[in-house]
């Protein structure tokens, strides 16, 4: 019997043939990478940076969570898309959330909020992230399938949410927050945006 901390890693790199090309198709040109051992020891995942020139968007995507014993089926990676000038903040959010998943040997589910007591980014009101499908990329970005059509990987996009928005979700649900974002035409890629709640 497996305990929560004895989950097997999701092996089989062959399941992800074509993943890099798929991510590039939607997120843009790869512009850089941060290896798993960037801080010395192997943290279990790297980070890859993509740039979509026509929309001036940078997407930071984890690379390696899919091989960690998180218990997710299908496997998972995390992404955060922001304007190019805010790429370091996206790197921080993906790194922080990935580290949390690896340390706790857990995974995300759609529309899960990951709250934090303090702001995640200095000088902002963002106290958490919402695990979501990508706001503008098609579902093929979020759900990677093998040639037979079997889903092998989910790429959850981390949408930063303010403390007020976290409380709004608790009171009204994620769908209601998305409706408010649409109503007020919130640009979720702008980390300088105001809170709607």
From TrEMBL:
Q: Which domain of life is it from?
A: Bacteria
Pfam family example for this protein?
SUFU
All copies of domain Suppressor of fused-like, residue ranges: 57-194
**Which InterPro entries does the entry link to?**
SUFU-like_domain
This chain belongs to which protein, by name?
A: Suppressor of fused domain protein
**What species is this protein from?**
Saccharopolyspora ipomoeae
